[in-house]
Amino acid sequence: MKTYENIKLLLLIGKGESSNVIYNSLIKIFPSIVCIQEERPNRWKFVKNRARKLGWITAIGQVIFQLSIPKILKRLSIKRRMEIAQEYSMDSTDIPSQKIINVYNINSIEVVELVIRHRPDVVLLNGTRIISKKLLKCTDAQFVNTHLGITPSYRGVHGGYWALANKEGSDFGATIHIVDAGIDTGGILKQILCTPSSRDNFSTFPMLQLGASLTHLPKIVLAVANNEAKSITIQNSTSKLWYHPTIFQYLYNWIKFGVR
User: Fold this and answer.
1) pTM of the predicted model, to two decimals?
2) What is the mean pLDDT of residues 95-108?
């Protein structure tokens, strides 16, 4: 029987505040953590890929949004962000450099070899690109993801924001799930619902979702490591993949529905 103290936990992460928060929360419970951190993907390649899927008008609208609104809201929400961080004991201090193995692409053969070498009990994801089938199959360990949205209805990104924009606030929350070859389609281990206040916005929604899920994450990792985790069956739910809002979508939802 695995315990918190002897579980070998491998984090596959992207650079960012949420990865720091997850590490700092879990290192207090799991002393044996290794982090493999992916460089941020090239923005121009990202835009071109998105344009091929959704069209250039949508892709450009998304870029304009990302370069403006979140940054403005983050500056305007400093006090609220501090309150949420305090409520959920969220520490965004940088992960110690000696704990990180930096890689260019999380799906590279280098990472496959690292995973095989470390023989983890559980692999936890946050903020990386979509994991390849080759990487998923290189170990018997389960891959687990904390998704900021309620799946299967709100797969993709910004699930909390889109739930509110669609007037489905009862679906505001996070999902801890097994990772498979799809996009947020793996077996659901836990759905965590929370309620944003009138002071919350696009900048603080993810903090609320992540903070609420951190309370449940250690027990789920323990259950997965011991092969005791069970997937939840969700009845009568649609499955949809969501993307970043465009600047036009954001302004429309703000003006019409008051969703900031």
Assistant:
1) 0.93
2) 95
